[in-house]
Automatic annotation (TrEMBL):
<protein>
    <submittedName>
        <fullName>Glycosyl hydrolase</fullName>
    </submittedName>
</protein>
<dbReference type="InterPro" id="IPR017853">
    <property type="entry name" value="GH"/>
</dbReference>
<keyword id="KW-0378">Hydrolase</keyword>
<dbReference type="GO" id="GO:0016787">
    <property type="term" value="F:hydrolase activity"/>
</dbReference>
Length: 417
């Protein structure tokens, strides 16, 4: 596996240069994730070769929970073997791999095994037997993949907080759920592999949402953020070429850093993309370049993983319109202009630019939306950014902690006016 991060100075007066990871979330071109029903290694390899051809270094991959674990006490060996084969194929073409375990939620669809539904409904977050079943699945996947030298690690699942609507849960129950599944994942993989979890933006911006910023920023080996331009209607509110849109991933990285206990905790922009019509196709390459370049200046950035590799084929029905055009490649496997732009910016040399000014975020779980698009704090941060200031984010509880501020290189603390 490639090194997570390698920083060095090229000269006494220059900003630190580091190696970042650039990859893509793999969406199979033929049949989308339904392709797991009749997995075709040759087609998968073709997709992965296209991705590697862009010069990217990793993919994030997903199997479907109902196919892996159709019964609470049955994990299908054949399905696990399929996943392992996909991981091997990625390695053969030079790609490292993060595996998401419990899907869960993918591109507007939820995938529940039948044993969690109908007359024997189980809350996937709080039912002890349901939680243990997911833990068993993650242990199994980790053990099956642990010997792969190109495995980055294991993630609990994709944006599991999307399942909250059908599975009511408290903050304390979420914490127990995450702790249980993270521990199970560590039992499977080997030391050196990452163990992570992910949540969509409600964890950061949603008033009272049970998945909290603290859980995202303090549990697992690094923080993952999914700064989508449709969250809070950001692109429509401010415009597709606005600073608010083009600095959104940078802002999300700095917001995540503020909630971490460790000032140096890495942050992974694990999903970002150019959904039409929020980002018109003609603006997509420029959006990709600006998003990556701005985020790359953040000291704690681990890497950027684009959503997604291939467009959903329009022969498949019932997706939101934006899902059909999110790929770097179209549904015929041809690279789109955004693919060339992302590959270009991924190949650039990226330097860390120090942030010695921090804007204080003072909110409660019930007023978290101030930090999202349209919120007073979000707009204050973006005003500073547009004025040429490169603000960090600091929580009000740490704004007077001199040792902490020094560890982050912050010399001036300002409050929103």
């Amino acid at each position: 596996m490639r090194a997570v991060q390698d920083r060095h100075r090229t000269g006494p007066e220059e900003d630190p240069i580091r190696t970042l990871r650039f990859g893509v979330n793999y969406t199979p071109r033929h049949g989308w994730f339904h392709s797991w029903h009749d997995f075709d290694p040759a087609r998968a390899r073709e997709d992965l070769e296209q991705i590697a051809g862009l010069g990217l270094d990793h993919v994030r991959v997903f199997h479907l929970w109902p196919l892996l674990q159709p019964n609470r006490t049955l994990i299908r060996t054949g399905a696990v073997d399929q996943l392992a084969r996909l991981v091997d194929l990625a390695g053969e073409v030079g790609l490292d791999v993060l595996v998401d375990g419990v899907q869960g939620h993918l591109s507007s669809f939820d995938f529940y095994p039948e044993w969690t539904r109908s007359w024997h409904h189980r809350n996937v977050f709080t039912d002890p037997e349901a939680v243990e079943a997911q833990a068993a699945l993650l242990r199994t996947l980790g053990r099956a993949l642990a010997d792969r030298p190109h495995l980055i690690g294991l993630q609990l699942g994709n944006e599991l907080n999307n399942l909250v609507e059908h599975n009511p849960v408290t903050v304390e129950e979420v914490d127990h759920y995450l702790d249980t599944l993270l521990a199970a994942s560590r039992e499977g993989v080997r030391p050196g592999h990452l163990v992570t979890h992910s949540a969509y933006d409600a964890a950061w911006y949603g008033d009272g949402h049970p998945f909290t910023p603290e859980a995202s920023a303090r549990k697992g080996d690094l923080t993952t953020v999914h700064p989508w331009v449709f969250s809070g209607d950001c692109a429509r509110r401010y415009g597709p070429r606005s600073p608010q849109v083009r600095h959104l991933a940078e802002y999300g990285t700095e917001l995540a850093t503020a909630y971490a206990l460790d000032p140096a905790r890495p942050v992974w922009v694990q999903e970002t993309g150019a959904p039409e019509p929020h980002i018109p196709a003609a603006d997509a390459p420029g959006f990709a370049r600006a998003t990556v370049r701005n985020a790359a200046e953040c000291a704690n950035l681990w890497g950027v993983t684009w959503w997604c590799s291939h467009d959903v084929d329009r022969s498949l029905a019932d997706y939101p319109e934006l899902e059909y055009t999110l790929g770097l490649f179209d549904s015929a496997g041809r690279p789109k202009p955004i693919a060339e732009a992302f590959a270009e910016v991924a190949a650039e040399t990226h330097s860390i630019r120090p942030r010695d000014t921090a804007l204080v975020l003072d909110c409660t779980p019930a007023t978290r939306s101030v930090s999202g698009p349209g919120g007073a704090y979000f707009e204050a941060w973006m005003r500073l950014r547009a004025e040429g200031v490169r603000p960090a984010v600091v929580l009000a509880s740490r704004a007077d902690d001199a040792e902490y501020l020094a560890a982050r290189g912050i010399k001036e603390v300002v409050r929103p006016s």
